[in-house]
Amino acid sequence: MSVSLSGQLINLLAALLLLIAFAMLSQRRVLSLINLFAWQGVVLTISTLVVAMSTQQQHLYYSAALTLVLKVIILPWILHRLIRKLNVKWDVETLINIPTTMLVGIMLVIFAFNLALPITQLAGTITRSTLGIAIAIVLLSFLMMLTRRKAIPQVIGFLAMENGLFFAATSATYGMPLVVELGIALDVLVGMFILGIFFFQIRETFDSLDLRHMEKLKDE
Amino acid sequence: MTLLPIDIAGGVVVYWLVLGMFSLLLIGSPKHITQLIFPAGALGALVLAGTGLVALGQTPNVAVLPLGLPDLPFHLRLDALSAFFLMLLGAAGFAISLYSAGYFRHMEARALALLALQYHFFLASMALVLLANDAYLFMVAWESMALSSYFLVTTDHKVPEIRKAGYLYLLIAHVGAISILLAFGVMQGGHGIAAYTFDAMRTAHLTPFWASITFSLALFGFGAKAGLLPVHVWLPEAHPAAPSPVSAMMSGIMLKTAIYGLLRITFDFLGGEIWWWGVLALTLGLITALFGVMFAAVQTDMKRLLAYSSIENIGILLVGIGLAILFHANGKESLAALALTATLYHALNHAFFKSLLFLGTGSVLHATGERNLGRLGGLIRRMPWVAALVLVGTLAIAGLPPLNGFVSEWLLLQAFLLTPDLPQPYLNMLIPVATAAIALAAALAAYVMVKFYGIVFLGQPRDEKLNEAHDAGWWERLGLAWLALGCILLGLFPVQVILQLDHVTQALIGDTLGMSAAKTGWLFLTPIAPERASYSPLFFLLAILVVLLITFLAVRRFYHGRLRRGPAWDCGFPEQTPRMQDSAEGFGQPIRQIFEPFFLIEREVPSPFDREPRYHGRSEDKLWYGLYLPIAKAADKLSAWISILQHGRIHLYLMYSFVTLLLMLVLVRWS
């Protein structure tokens, strides 16, 4: 694959990722949110593969496979099962209304691009222009965690943030060492399980997954 | 491959660690823990003491272990200073371990196994502190020393007061450790991780400003461990809370590791070249010594009394260090060597007699279950062994010739008497005051010891149950006897001891005392010149013996056969009870009167019409109310402010991290 073509492809995929991040931010339904998260995983897998092919970095193939298995198949499946079991297909409630959130999101993207500017000028990787997008995805996912009231969207925001970090790593330095990536993948998986158990416990205790109820837990 | 002293010392550390682990396996048979593990540990201590003695005269050994941080492996070094303190650790640790073999025999199995584990870890970490040759290993050993001793202090953790004492100890230990860490940080000076080795610190050249900062941090940090004013408050709480062998080890050995650290940093790393450091150490030491002895005089709990006496002795050691710095900075090396020798000698002496006394209180505690001086008395008849051996320690700590306490205090006073040669004019005027103060402290220490021994062992038993008191077992006697023997030998052969100490002073200051001290033969100790002052303990002993013999013979000759037994001094009051003896409060009362402004006194005097009159008096530390409680209140207030941040709303918490992240990114980008 020629360098210019793969460069174009990666830029396209990065744009797609950003688009999906915005879509997640504006999404009102939990089910679609999970599907969007799975799509983000798909795009991430493809972009990692493209980078791997154009740079001949062996370990990136493994990373791509890991992403595919974990973020496209296992995690969405667990999330789907969770909402079926908890019977929570309701609409997503937000703290701030969605247009405002989008506006804040745009500001964050501008901030992220500005932040990445000196690094992109210095970097020599073919993926350098995508670093700003990666940072933007991290910040947007964080914003999603901030503005959602229920527990499951927050967890999806957390997972999406990890996607952004992964993308940042591939685009800035052709990925982290495989050991680190394996470790993070395992962390995400275990974290997911623990959060799943927490959901059941929270619902048992408060009869709802609304996190406002947890305000009582503070020290008086 | 030849076996270097450092290999043996390292081997003993590992051996202790293994022994500690092993005692956990013996949890089912407590008898084996006391009869096997502790004596085996004692053997290790003896080997360590021998190694230290051998290594004193050798060139420094170094070793690098394949452990530690990736770029900073553990460095070990055994030089004269380490060797001296290792010898101290081994010699005192040997006796304490022997004693422990008997002392802990009635303990419950689980608690005993844990105690044996912590005990040997404590020993091993103290040895490692002395061997460490980089800041990282030093701090690791220092902290494990603090932690293992914390667990030892809180052996009886079901008693709330003991938990409280342990907490206070841990808190101050950590404040001190932070200060030490900062001192190392200043010396490292941002020169990469390799600059954390002590070798790099030895060659680092600090500006006088930064060197002074380092010294102040080290003085505070090590002072917190040693019990220097005003960070002494943990000592009188933790020592009585701990089991007696642990108190002995903490007071006799652990406090000395702080002295070691201070000497290491001041002389080995910083060169001890700024004269006002000496004044600072001297002043703090004097205040500490006087404070300690004053409070010791008014205590009614025998272990608290000894704890305050430890504070006093630490003060004396610091005075010695201060003088050594003062002389060294003024280029008077032979006098610096004299002051330093006195300090080291006193450290060694204190390890022996303070351990002896603490172990003695342990035996009394075991036999009577009583720590309060007001309920003891007359034990010399019930516990002749303990009484005789403790008497040696009492005389030694009181500074009476021909025992060891006299030698070091005498050397220190000699150093004081020579200070008028200093170039700083004000110091020459102040030093005589300091000399008087140190003499006062020494005299008061003797007073305190008369009180301690007199109330506990002499007179009539103040309580019925004291008549059932039993003497200590053989293991205990062995431990006590070793320490008493040490006190006697260190007192009788000062010249030989000083010749060994010369290796240390040679390494630290570059001058020695031994040459002039031994000038007139090994029999006489002459620190400066024969015409100024010299001392021969053997002649002293001989004179004492001759006087005793003559008195004995004279009494026999002139009064024998004319003995008449009558009621002893009944003051016209026919009925006498043990309650009519002088009490601990009564004995300390003059001191309390004289130094009243220093105490916070709380007293209840019964009315003359009270049917059951009871006297209750407490003398408390003003610093506790004036310094510590305000700090604690301020910390409480601060944490109340910080708890405003805690809303219980996850979104707000996320917001905190989000805003922090953004701010940091902004800082990275536009700075």
Side by side, the strands of the main sheet of chain B go 1-2
What letter string, H or E per element, gives the SSE order of chain A? HHHHHHH
Largest sheet of chain A: none
Low-confidence stretches of chain A: none
Would you report the number of β strands of chain B?
4
Shape, per Cα inertia axes of chain A = globular
Helix count from the secondary structure assignment of chain A: 7
Largest interface: A-B, 21 and 16 residues
Classify the helix fraction of chain A into a percent range.
over 70%
SSE class of chain A: mainly alpha
Overall 3D form of chain B: globular
Overall description:
The complex is a heterodimer of chains A (220) and B (671). Chain A has seven helices and no strands. By secondary structure, chain A is mainly alpha-helical. Chain A has one domain. Chain A is globular. Chain A starts with a helix and ends in a 14-residue tail after the last helix. The relative contact order of chain A is 0.14. The mean pLDDT of chain A is 81. With 671 residues, chain B is mainly alpha-helical. Chain B has a domain of 226 residues. Helices cover 70% and strands 4% of the residues of chain B. Chain B has a two-stranded antiparallel sheet with strand order 1-2. Chain B has a two-stranded antiparallel sheet with strand order 3-4. In chain B, a hairpin with a 4-residue loop joins strand 1 and strand 2. The longest helix of chain B has 36 residues. Chain B is globular, with a radius of gyration of 26 Å. The model of chain B has no long low-confidence stretch (mean pLDDT 86). Chains A and B meet through helix 4 and helix 5 of A and helix 24 of B.
